[in-house]
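Tutorial handout. Part one gives the primary structure; part two gives the three-dimensional structure as tokens.
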Amino acid sequence: MSDKQKSILSGMTVLSVVGLVCKIVGALYRVPLARLIGDEGMGTYQLVFPTYNMLLTISSAGLPVAISRMVSFTLARDDPRNARRIFRVALCLLTALGFTACILMVVLSPALALRSGDPSTQPGFVAIAPALLLVCMMSALRGFMQGQQNMVPTAISQLIEQVGKVFIAIPLAYFGSRVSIAYGAAGVLLGTSIAEAVALAYMFAVYRRKRPAFLRLKQNEQEAPLDARTLLKRLTSLSVPITLGACIVPIASFIDSGLLLKRLYAAGIEPGAALGLYGRYSGYVLTLINVPTALATAIAMSLVPSISSAMARGDGKGMRRQSALGLRLSFVVGLPCTAGMSLLSRRILSLIFVFSEASDLMVTAQLLSLSSLTIVLFTVVQSTSGILQGLRRQRIPMYTLLAGVAVKVLLNYTLIGLPQFNIFGAPIASIACYTISMAPNLYFVFRYTGDKPDWAGLLLRPALATALMAAALGLLLRVVPEGALWTLLMVLAGVAAYALAALWTRAVTKDDLAPLTRRFARRK
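Part two.
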């Protein structure tokens, strides 16, 4: 295995482990949160978040990727001078965009609250607005570090965000809930803004500490210094297609936040029950689905700078190796997560959340079991998008995801309004969305890398290992009793069964594990 592949795997390992921890913490902190503000409060909270996520994506999604790619490209050519200039220009641009988005959310909060269908959400929009500016500024720092293929600061800042939410948002939710459910949800959102401020302070401290070493990097004097206008033009040309592509899903979620409740009403569900159903789907099901997708994000974030660096060196063979590695890992990660989440859906929900009615647990478990099919699809979409962005084909994943989301919105509108589907139309629409996006992405990855698909290594071996794990879990489900401890043991048993099956089928090799074992060996 080459040094670059080891570097990719090491970066993926750091981001994956911390990303999983963050997602688990994020899921667990919703347990006391749900008890404080209830299903309706969770529904109110989730009505605000899609708008915040959409504005955040518009203002910051594409630029960190563009920064990462441009910095890795210039450093591969021994040109740290232009790498510094890229960072300064990007920081100014992101600060301006974040400030604009923050002001817009505050000024438009009354209209956004009315549009969501619940006017009591207005305090929540105001409370989350400062996070737009803070995350935009932090995105510039993260992109700069990732361009140096240093994923640790990004990972630690993500951990600070999540842990900060637990220790800050929960008390604020408690005090807010004493006024009303809406103010309880607003307290959670204000806690998010404060946690982002702490994470930004950490990233700035890391930047200041590492700056002297960066300034000592050797400069290739043959590389001409680039002016701010040229860098701004390049950043824009790279980031706009990525931003547009990244905006598609948040915009769809923004549309869904105003659409789903209305379509549930059309299906004959009364307003209070509809808000609770929406809260359980968006607050419980999607939260759990997002736990394993942290691995997909880690794969994509590691692939962009590594592939861009290989292209800067003219290393076509290395670029193909890295692309194949990232694509294989997406199946290795996505398939078992899909199967495990689907099989253990009811037990996992019972472990984490409290349900007042057994029927609520049953419906939510069915939603989670169906929604888990999106995990592997989303993982492959993320990795193929990262590969195509590294190959400077960033428009392709934008177009494919746009097609998928158009179908998703249409299916949401049609299926959720039908009584026989109601909320189950949402996961069906998501499955269709990511399938439509994944298929052409795979085609274009193989076309532009010039690599032939090794379906045995990519899909068949991980699928066989997943089937063996599913068989083991199926047997355990028949004999293992209910209970929190037993559920945790079953999750660990599933992980162990897949690990053994993956090694036996060679879905995972010793070379794949080398970066992780080396990291533990160094700590010892």
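Part three, for discussion. The two ends are 23 Å apart (CA to CA). The first helix runs from residue 3 to 28.
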